[in-house]
């Protein structure tokens, strides 16, 4: 007898179907092997698929995150989407509930708000942001992105807040939309990571416009990347020399792909501190909508 595994499909970091980033959540994944999870994620052919396993408590489940090619320690839209999916399944409409998803990066606290028509959630990262220099200088990065050097605001950086990204600040939306990565130049493409992920953005005060392109089997663009927003927190804290307090940012992504997404990012800087060294908490927030349900027979 073949076993049935139910799943839910969601669009994450959006309040409308066909926006944001797609996600499949297998809510009863007990009994699946690592190999089966990877094959299922490849079969679903989405940016990520999550598998929910029993944890110490009902609201602290084990959650594993897979792309089509490998397992991730942490990812933003799968965390937000999985928590909202679980809250919906437990009929948490009209309630605010706290969860702690046990991911490979560590415990990730998530607060889900079901008091509005569209569920929303806010995660707190399991680790604080790190920032370092990219192996590429401005000229090399400009060549890789097919942009003039003047389009780059500063030298690229490497950021990590659970997952690594190369961060590139550009002067305006036109530059962000004009990026075309020259993947033939492998020395530039893989300078920072064996699985490079480029997050390029422009900012106007606390509003940002971003895109993310990463290497899987081929180069692919992601419509909404919560883990990149988290990684960006270190760059923003450093470059803006954020003072003590909570600083809120709104990031637009996925616009050029026709899947607009809105990501909330909050950076808390400790009392009497400033900049990256003072960051004591990073949260990422957004909405999600269920788009479908089904089951897989194995």
TrEMBL record:
Q: Which residues form the active site?
A: 48
The record's listing under Pfam families reads:
PhzC-PhzF
What InterPro entries does the entry give? Phenazine_PhzF-like
Q: Name one GO molecular function term.
A: isomerase activity
- Can you tell which superkingdom this protein's organism belongs to? Bacteria
Q: Which Gene3D superfamilies match?
A: Diaminopimelate Epimerase, Chain A, domain 1
Q: What are its GO cellular component terms?
A: cytoplasm
- NCBIfam families, alphabetically? PhzF_family
**Xref: PANTHER family:** ANTISENSE-ENHANCING SEQUENCE 1, PHENAZINE BIOSYNTHESIS PROTEIN
Family indicated by similarity: Belongs to the PhzF family.
* Protein name as annotated: PhzF family phenazine biosynthesis protein
**Native source organism of the sequence:** Oceanospirillum sediminis
């Amino acid at each position: 007898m073949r076993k049935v595994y139910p799943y839910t499909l969601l669009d994450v970091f959006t309040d409308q179907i066909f926006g944001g980033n797609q996600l499949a959540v297998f809510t009863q994944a007990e009994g699946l092997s690592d190999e089966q999870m990877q094959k299922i994620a490849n079969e679903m052919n989405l940016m990520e698929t999550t598998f929910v396993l029993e944890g110490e408590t009902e609201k602290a489940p084990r959650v594993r995150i897979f792309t089509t090619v490998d397992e991730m320690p942490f990812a933003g839209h799968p965390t937000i989407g999985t928590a909202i999916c679980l809250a919906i399944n437990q009929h948490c409409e009209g309630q605010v509930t706290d969860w702690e998803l046990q991911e490979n990066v560590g415990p990730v606290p998530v607060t889900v708000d079901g008091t509005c028509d569209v569920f929303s959630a806010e995660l707190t990262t399991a680790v604080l942001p790190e920032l370092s220099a990219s192996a590429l200088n401005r000229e090399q990065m400009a060549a890789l992105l097919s942009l003039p050097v003047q389009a780059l605001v500063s030298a690229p950086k490497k950021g990590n807040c659970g997952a690594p990204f190369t961060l590139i600040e550009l002067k305006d939306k036109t530059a962000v939309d004009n990026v075309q990565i020259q993947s033939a130049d492998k020395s530039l493409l893989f300078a920072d990571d064996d699985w490079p992920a480029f997050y390029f953005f422009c900012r106007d005060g606390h509003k940002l416009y971003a895109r993310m392109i990463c290497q899987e089997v081929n180069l692919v663009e992601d419509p909404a990347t919560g883990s990149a927003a988290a990684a960006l927190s270190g760059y923003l804290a450093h470059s803006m020399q954020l003072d003590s307090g909570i600083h809120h940012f709104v990031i637009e992504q996925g616009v050029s792909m026709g899947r607009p997404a809105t990501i909330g990012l909050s950076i808390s800087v400790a009392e009497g501190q400033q900049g990256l060294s003072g960051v004591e908490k990073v949260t990422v927030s957004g909405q999600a909508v269920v788009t479908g349900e089904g089951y897989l027979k194995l």
